[in-house]
Amino acid sequence: MELPPALRQAVDKALEGVPLAELRRAADLLSRRYRDEVRDGRLHLPDHLAAQAYLATRLPATYAAIRASLAAVAEMRPDFAPASLLDVGTGPGSALWASRDCWDSLEAATLVETSIAIRKIGERLANGLPGRIEWLDANIETGLPALPPADLVTLAYVLDEVPPVSIARLVDRLWAITGDTLVVVEPGTPAGWQRILAVRARLIAAGAHLVAPCPHQEACPLAAPDWCHFARRVARSRVHRLAKNADVPWEDEKYIFVAASKVPGNRPSARVLAPPQSASGTVRLKLCMNDGSVAAKLASKREGAPYKVARRLDWGDAVSKDSGLA
Ligand SMILES: C[S@@+](CC[C@H](N)C(=O)[O-])C[C@H]1O[C@@H](n2cnc3c(N)ncnc32)[C@H](O)[C@@H]1O
C-alpha cells in the first residue's frame, strides 16, 4: 500500500533538507521507544526532528493499517457514509487521510493531539484539504475537552502510549460521542491484541455491534501464544529506506483493530486469520467462524467452487456465506 499522492508529496516536502544522520538517530530512538512500549511520562514525538522521523518511518505503516481497517468497515457497512470524523491521538492526521481516501462523504474532522511538534506538521500536510478541519491541543489522560459527537471516531496506535488503567475510561468516553462507528487500531503484537481485547469487551458490554474483524460477539477463540493480527505490505520511499538504513523497498506492518457500531451490520461467515497455505490442488485456511470458534479448513480442487474462492482469499479477508467454505 502507498500513501495517497497528495500526502506523499506533502511528506516529501516536509522532509526536504533534513540532515540524514540526525533523521536516522531520531528514527532509531523512536523505533526503540515504540518497540519497548516506553511509558516514562515523556512524549515519543517531543520535537520537530522526532515528528519528521515519524513521517519518514511510521506514517506509511500506520496509514496502511488504518486504511485497511476502514476498508473492512466499509465492506461490512456499505450503507455507512460518515460526514464527520473525530480522531484522537491524531499524530500527523493519518486517520484523516485514510478516512478521506475511504469515504468521500467526509465534510468535517476534529483532530486531537497533545504533541505540538507533530500537530504543526499535520496541519501543514492537511493544508488545502477540503472540508472543515479543527486541530485541538488536548491530552487524553489529563482530560479531554468537550468534544463534538462524530459519525466516525478513530483511535489509532495510541493505547500503547497511555497507562492501561486509562483504557476503559477512554473507550467509554469515545463510545459516548460516537454517532455511528468507533475504530481502534493497535500494533499487531500480542500486547496490542490484549489491549484490543480489552476495548472489545468494554464495547460489547456497552451494547455495541462489532463490525470487524470479528464475525461474532462471543469470547475470542484464540489463546496465547497465538494472537489475532493482520498485515499490510507498505512501500518504503527513498528517505524511508535511508532513515532506517534498509535496502528492501517494502516492509510488512502487522496490526490489529476492532470496529464497533451503534447499528448492526452484515456479518461474514468467517474471517481468514493467517496467510492461506497453497499446495498442489489444495488451500489450507485458518478461519475465525461466526459461531465463535476457530477452524482449519482444507479446500481441495475436487470441491470446485469453494476451492476457487479459497484461492482468491487473503489474510484478513471476510468469507461470505455463499462461498461454501464456512
Ligand atoms: C504512534 S502515534 C499515532 C499517530 C496516528 N494516530 C497514527 O496512527 O499515525 C501516537 C500519537 O498519540 C499522541 N498521544 C500520546 N499520548 C497522548 C495523550 N495523552 N493525549 C493526546 N495525544 C496523545 C502522540 O503524541 C502521538 O502523536
Structure explained in plain terms:
The two termini are 29 Å apart. By secondary structure, the protein is an alpha/beta fold. It is built from 10 helices and 13 strands. Strands 1, 2, 3, 4, 5, 6, 7 and 8 form an 8-stranded mixed β-sheet that branches. Strand 10 and strand 11 form a beta hairpin. It is globular. Helix 2 packs across helix 9 (238-244) and helix 7 crosses helix 8.
Characteristic key phrases:
326 residues; alpha/beta; five-stranded antiparallel sheet; binds S-adenosylmethionine
First CA to last CA: what distance?
29 Å
Give me the count of strands. 13
Low-confidence stretches: none
Percent helix, as a range, is 25-40%
Instruction: Provide the residue-averaged pLDDT.
Output: 95
- Beta-strand level of the residues, as a percent range? 15-25%
Q: Secondary-structure element order, as H and E?
A: HHHHEHEHEEHEHEEHEEEEEHE
Quaternary state of the chains:
single chain
Q: Which radius of gyration do the C-alpha atoms yield? A: 20 Å
Discrete helix count: 10
Shape summary: globular
Ligands bound here?
S-adenosylmethionine
The structure class reads: alpha/beta
Biggest sheet details: 8 strands, mixed
Write the SSE topology:
Layout: H1 5-14, H2 20-35, H3 48-57, H4 59-76, E1 84-88, H5 94-102, E2 108-113, H6 116-126, E3 132-137, E4 150-156, H7 167-176, E5 178-187, H8 190-205, E6 209-212, E7 230-235, H9 238-244, E8 250-261, E9 270-272, E10 277-279, E11 282-289, E12 294-300, H10 305-312, E13 318-319
Parallel strand pairs: 1-2, 1-4, 2-3, 4-5
Antiparallel strand pairs: 5-8, 6-8, 7-8, 9-11, 9-13, 10-11, 11-12
Helix pairs in contact: 1-6, 2-3, 2-9, 4-5, 7-8
The chain binds S-adenosylmethionine (SAM).
